[in-house]
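Input.
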Amino acid sequence: MGATIAGDWSDEQNDAIVADYFAMLGDDIAGRPYSKAKHNRLLQAVIDRPRGSIEYKHQNISAVLKGLGEDWIPGHKPAFNFQASLVDAVVLWLNRHPDWLAPAPRMAMGPSPSALREEAMLWIGPPPTHSNAPPPDELEQMTFIARKYDVAERDARNRALGRASEERVLAHERARS
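Output.
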């Protein structure tokens, strides 16, 4: 089977690479080691695309996730030149895995909430900078992506996460006094 060089990706190819991307992102968030090269090699065999094409598609998925305001793999810098069906594939994956965006399961990937409650000191890092805002040339693509996703549901999850964070800070302050 020779590697396909050009042409739009099929829905099946998009679904396969999106699922693989989220597997790597889950490992990254949890601090588990993984090999991007190994994932790439396995994908080459499954979707019949060359290494460079897969790497670029991973960057495209990072761009979609950035547009949704979600975490993305730091080693795959967002590349916003992608086919619209990739947004559909990412949104479909997220819809099939609603627990991915829920604060409790995501926190479970890292330290458990009970471990956070027991910790005596809270580390407070430097404040975010204005560079967190997307550059103007990405704004149109990010707006397109955001329109395909349920912003109200994401806002509700973010509010729940914010409340949990405020409770954590309050618990920390009470423990200090």
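Confidence is low (pLDDT under 50) at residues 1-5, 104-108, 111-120.
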